[in-house]
Known about the structure:
The complex is a heterodimer.
Chain A: H1 31-35, H2 38-59, H3 80-83, H4 87-118, H5 124-132, H6 139-150, H7 156-163, H8 176-200, H9 204-212, H10 217-245, H11 249-255, H12 263-272, H13 278-304, H14 327-354, H15 375-382, H16 384-417, H17 423-431, H18 438-451, H19 460-470, H20 472-485, H21 489-496, H22 501-512, H23 514-530, H24 533-538, H25 546-555, H26 560-583
Helix pairs in contact in A: 2-13, 2-17, 2-18, 4-5, 4-8, 4-10, 5-14, 6-8, 6-11, 6-14, 8-10, 8-11, 9-10, 10-13, 12-13, 14-26, 15-26, 16-17, 16-19, 16-20, 16-23, 16-25, 20-23, 21-22, 23-26, 25-26
Chain B: E1 3-12, E2 15-25, E3 30-34, H1 41-49, E4 56-61, E5 64-68, E6 73-74, E7 82-85, H2 97-107, H3 112-126, H4 141-154, E8 159-163, H5 171-188, E9 192-196, H6 199-205, E10 208-213, E11 216-221, H7 223-228, H8 233-238, E12 243-246, E13 249-251, E14 254-257, E15 260-263, E16 275-278, E17 284-286, E18 297-308, E19 313-319, E20 324-329, E21 342-347, E22 353-355, H9 364-367
Parallel strand pairs in B: 3-9, 3-10, 7-8, 8-9
Antiparallel strand pairs in B: 1-2, 1-4, 4-5, 5-6, 10-11, 12-16, 13-14, 14-15, 16-22, 17-21, 18-19, 18-21, 19-20
Amino acid sequence: MTTTPVPTRPPAAPAPGVASPSPRRRATVPLRTRLLGLPLLALVAFLVLVPAGFILLAAFSSDVPRPGSTGLSFTFDNLRVVAAEGVTAAALNSLVIAIGATVLASLIGGALAFAAARTNVRARGFLYLIGLMPLFLPSYVGALAWSILASPGAGLINVGFRDLGITGPVVDVYSYGGVIVVMAMYYAPYAFLMIHSSMALMNPDLEDAAGVHGSPTWRALRTVTLPLSLPAVLGSGLLIFVLVFENFPVSQVLATPGGIDTLPTFIYKLMNTTPSRGNEAAVVAIALVAVVVLVTWLQRRFLASRSFTTVSGKGVKPRTIALGRWRTPVLLAALAYFLLSIVLPLLALLLSAVRSSPYMRSFASLADPGAIDVTSFAAAVTSDGFLGATTNSVVVSVAAAALGTALAFAVAYVVYRTRSWGKGALEGVSMVPLAIPHVVLGIGLLWTWLVMPLPVYGTLGVLIIGFLVVQMPQGFRGIASSIRSLDRDLEDSAVMLGARRVRAVTWITLPLLRVAVLSTFLLLLMLSMRELTVPLFLYTTDTEILSIAIYDQFENGGALREASATALVYCAIMFLLSYLPRRFGAGSGGRHG
Amino acid sequence: MKVGVEALELVYGEHRAVKNLDLTISDGKSVVLLGESGCGKTSTMRCIAGLEAPSGGRITIGDRIVYDGARGVSVPPFRRNVGMVFQSYAVWPHMTVTDNVAFPLRMKGISRTESRRRALAVLEVVGLAHLGSRGASLLSGGQMQRVALARSMAMEPAVLLLDEPLSNLDARLRDELRVELRRIQLESGLTSLYVTHDQQEALALADSIAIMQNGRITQFGTPEEIYARPASASIARFLGVTNVFEVSAVDGHRVRLTGQELAVDELGDGEGPWHACIRPEHVRVDLTTGAESRAVNRLSGTVEVAVFQGASIRCTVRTGSGMVLEAICPPPPGGTLTAGTEVSVAIEARDIHLLPEHTAEHGEVVAA
């Protein structure tokens, strides 16, 4: 026998101070590996924590950060704003709207999801599209369209009723009910997607087992299916609550004209009064962050427990439930939602884009000669403002998406594939923007880049940085989930076969993750295109982007036609960008305003 | 090339995965690390590969020190020239079979055409030359296994590491590839280290087996030695010895178990306490209770469960004294064993081994 048996040594006597290896000794990971994540942590922390820090600083200071001064003069005076006019009312309004919209959106999304996933409703595939489509329409475009449709004075619906002889505003979207319904319509897709996937992936054996043990179909639904999708319902509900609670654009377009303040619009108002009351805005912002953090934490707990929906990897085909004579009525109900969320808003935008006069007393007046003028489209699309904004949007969004994807890959790789110091902190800091409402983040970024001695403010650069920060969590999650699901042996084997680590990453890991990388890029591109709140604080006249241009034209009145035309073109772009990532299998998983 | 591991330590936080481990693999030989999951065998292998950073000790490949904790030497994995077949195979699905196998040659700076030619030659050895241009994601499990093996062999490694190479295959394919792996290893003369928890695989593939328990090697020997003479009752149990009884007293060459006395040939060395270990194959079961048998230990009992396995019957017998024995025996002539059958049981004295629960090397568990 040529293999020499080596008698193992007796267990090392625990003698401290002796050179024998002690169990306390740490693994000797090379210092280079340990340090790998630190520059990245520094960069991410700088991008995210400095804006957050400025908000905190401003809340307890008598002056806001401005060039040459970080506003360091400690005071508790700002806290008085909490007791002052309107804050409590705004907080209550936010709460009422968020709860109302969450309940309504969950009902719409849940019912649609159940019908599309588990019943034999007519046109089931179309029902799935109906559930998804409002996601492609940025919620503030929906809000603008609804203000055209249902404002108490000149709203098209009210005009129509007046034509029929029914006077007085029949519908008024500038109200609690209006804001709640519009928010619910555009956030229902989140509930739809999450509940649909939990219902579609549910192993039918679980229900069949209930049937075998003597439970009738509807009873099995109630005792097995519903409890199993409860985590999805609760998880999506909390997500929607946060999104509505911190939503600025819809509140600004619909609630503000009705004299209803929400926390985000209240903050915006404080920022935009002369002189600006930024310090008090910071205090309200912190209160807003606190609520969002609490609910986000709750949401993550529910999502974490979602695993008990026992999804099996096999291609499962859930049982469908026969609706009988309800097949058509259910479809009609879904069509009503489709009409309200997509068809009517787009028609309203189309009508106001081609109408020559911004005001319309009656639908009959459309028949007047010259009332319709389709050239406005051409004019809007070829105007310098539109071309400039489009160029800016494309440049900013592509740059932000590319940089964001690269950063997300680097962060996710360090967090899940290395033994670097600070990788826990890296993951934590990357997820921080999730807990900061966009209104607040916008203010923080504004102050940060005003104060920074780098000449970034006033350029497209500051918008790119802003988007990079806002979308960090979505980018990280997109890449991280696929890095985690990629067997690390695939990369290690390349190293064993003689490739340096960097080469193994570029030859093996990156090509294997190309679908995830591409779809993350497209997701970030779409999110950048539709983001309104953060650039609202960061743009200057030279750096207007599409979302801002539309908002500006609407808010400052007078340019309704251009705004509507631009919004329609914008919707077409958004639809394309939303469709592409789905082609490549990316989830939306986003939080956007 | 020869591989030497000295006093290897691996600590994760508070957990010592590998404890003061020594192991030598002679040039051209194959050693199997055999142990239950979590015993530290894969960690040991990953330390040799360089994928895990040990906490102390020394690893040499040939004359080259690739890791030395005391001197802070740690050669990165891509410079160790160690081949590794991963449990998951890690065959890259975005490349063809040939590209997979040619990868290590390309990394050595060999030209594209030359490395393709050599890759095909290696694929010939594993019998996959005809699939060279196929995308690797279209392969079956057995084929992936061969590609992973070919890829590691193509780099002409100093040592080949195989992590549970057959565990992802179905039973029939496993038997086939076991023989195939052994043939390739013997023909190529590659120094190999396998990790497995399957004793059949270990017995088939090894020149020597190292039993690993609790982060340590507790027995080292040829497959025949290990099979015939496990060093402790815990190793015996792991190797399929299902009859293990605590010994309450030893009197000459007779040992007392619960309610039963048995004659033994050999007494264990050292102090005790002892466990009497009997392989189920060594328990003979006969139909007739009064049958003639020269065996020293004759008991009578009743079959509780019997499972027909084709060539043999596996059964559980409860003896009159309340002892429950597992037996694997040929089907008795002129009858069969079923639950309730009265039988006589015979065990030769030389087939009863007296072993301690653990070896001295087992470590903390003994103390606990």
